[in-house]
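Replying to the earlier thread about multi-chain prediction with a worked example.

Input:
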Amino acid sequence: VEDPVTNAGSTPSPIDYSPAAQAFRTEVAQWLVQHAPEELRGVRVSRDPVPELEAALAQWAHIMTEAGYMCVGWPREYGGRGLTGVEVAILNEEFARADLPRLTRGMGESLVGPAIIAHGTAAQKADFLPRITSGEHVYCQGFSEPGAGSDLASLRTTGTIDGDEIVINGQKIWTSNFSRANMIFTLCRTNPEAPKHRGISYVLVPTGRGERANGVEFRPITRMTGKAHFAETFFNDSRAPLTNVIGGLDNGWRVAMTTLGNERGGGATTQHLAFAEQFWRLVTEVRARGLIADPRVREQLAWAYSQVEVLRFTGLRLLADLAGGGSGAGLGNGSTSKVRWSEYERRLAEIAMDILGPDALVVGPDYELSYWQEEFLVTRSHTIWGGTAEVQRNIIGERILGLPKEPEPMATRDRVPA
Amino acid sequence: MSLTITPEQHQLRDTVRRFLAEQLPLSRVRDLAATPEVFNPQVWRRIANELGVQSLAVPAEHGGAGAGYQDLAYVFEECGRALFAGPLLATLGLALPVLLASGDEASQARHLPAIADGTTVATLAGLAPGGGWDSWGVDLEARPDGEGWRLTGTASIVLDALSANLILVVAGTGTASRVLAVDPDAGGVTRSAQPTLDQTRPLGLVRFDSAPAVAVGGPGDGGPLVATALDHFNVLLAAEMVGGSQACLDMAVGYAKIREQFGRPIGSFQAVKHKCAEIFVELEGARAAAYYAAWAADENPSELPVVATLARASAGEAYFRAAADNVQIHGGIGFTWEHDAHLYFKRAKASQLIFGDTGAHRRQLADRIGL
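Result:
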């Protein structure tokens, strides 16, 4: 039977949703019909910020928060909604169907909140979690360092105790979203004597501005596109109360690692949508250039279409299992997915450059790039951040296939660079 | 039915895996591959009687289990893993979908029960000798003869031509192409084996010399029925290739764990580890596509032409990579006749090419998504 609001039932579904899940879908769909801000339809927040929409986006985030659609994966007792992966997927599907951005509280919601929930004290939970949900605290991440990339645990930023405060000194790199953030969650070394994974602490540091300056300085890094996106972050005697250390002193590695796992399957049925949109954008480009009859181009486009569909199929397969009460075990993991989409996106942009032909070689004034030129450059970072493609292959090889680890050279084991 | 594997399907898959491991280990596959027919009638009958594989996608009113292509896909995955040598793909991936899609009740009543119980081994013929993958029916001519038809011409690259006792043939009739059923033992049919690169999958040349034939479906059905057959063929072949890729990955990983060079297992070297990881990533994508295509064959047929082509092309690439890298990871031993790696390598390339290479399928996919 076709549901007039959700459109469910119009085509056969490869997923058997429970009655409760279907009821949740109807609830979300109806809420969206009543509250949808028309000016935000079709807005994609993953791209660069649009200043004239900032107010509308903030208002939409507020409405979503009031209605309980923010931090939905967190347990109810901490201001979340305790949604399962399947329910988050439904939420994403309905927002996508309404063509509205499903806003989140960014890294505060996806990384910091879960870390506090898993490792924080009752007081820390009461203090920090509501500020994330409300949007009062906006976080950026201070993990990587110039000398600690894939080998993050070799980090050198220090944290020293001064009374009831921790004082942080050092340099971080690749900090994104720094211009909006008023808090930075960072890893620093609080015990230089301990083995490298054991002397690290996880600290929430106010970035401070103006009179409340806290010695945190962001210096934007210009990417190969010519635009700044990340920053280098310098801590110069930056202070935070010891109550901002999550999980206890010297226990930060564990805290940082647990934040990387949250509810599974939430993006399973919507992760491919942006890629599908991008694929059809390239088809439009090909048609406009009169190349659509070229057999070689057709083969490349069909390959790209297949890659996007494979993202959809893998998501459907995972969600079908979760919706049926399964654990999703063995149905792909973050590393597999990361390798697939990041290398696909890189290759698609290369194909697009071929299609642009001579136009690919010419940029606008002030190094202004076309969409595909920008993609061609930006996607080189996608196989680097968040664990390089090589690290992901090590993870797949070792954790999934059970291949032996590469023996660490004895001389560098557990050694923290001086 | 959803995309998830049911407990019954799990059981079916395990049963088939155990059966093939016991009855047709690779040593026996090699023995069979050395014969012209590459067919073991006893094993075929046991697959029908004990496992019921031939009946799975046959409707209940014709003596089948009325299950579908999702069940069959899990069976074919196991066939691919074990390098099964026998006419399951020709019978269930080519002849059965032609009969099901023909809407020809008389032909269905005559042939489907015999397919379901394993009596009939069937295939589809039509490619012209020396022709390309699109030469269906061009070298075959049918003319009416009383109640029936007479067929003349030659078909090449006929899967399981020697073991089939029912050959469906795509032929021209002067104005349009149609499908006809031929009993190869009824006279006017000469069959010979075509020695194959992949010795586990037999091909044959079939000559028809005014051979008596019975029409299946109507005039002009030739093209559409071949297209439908190939969509279903591609679903099962994709599943089979997924199973073959898994076997290659298992072999490669197993060897990389125990083979030591420079004082450590070669799997600890990133050069080898990353190859294995890449096989895995591509295989998991191909698997998701193959399962989805099988689901669509049963539950959403309007999507089948797109997803079957897509799944087949993806699985073909994944399988070839897995089989080729498996040879490479095994080093010198992987290049020998004694080692099993080449059996998968040859099966992978033959599977990737049969009835159209990956590029051809991608161009077909482009057509089918409206580019």
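Chain A has a mean pLDDT of 92.

Feel free to reuse this layout for your own posts.
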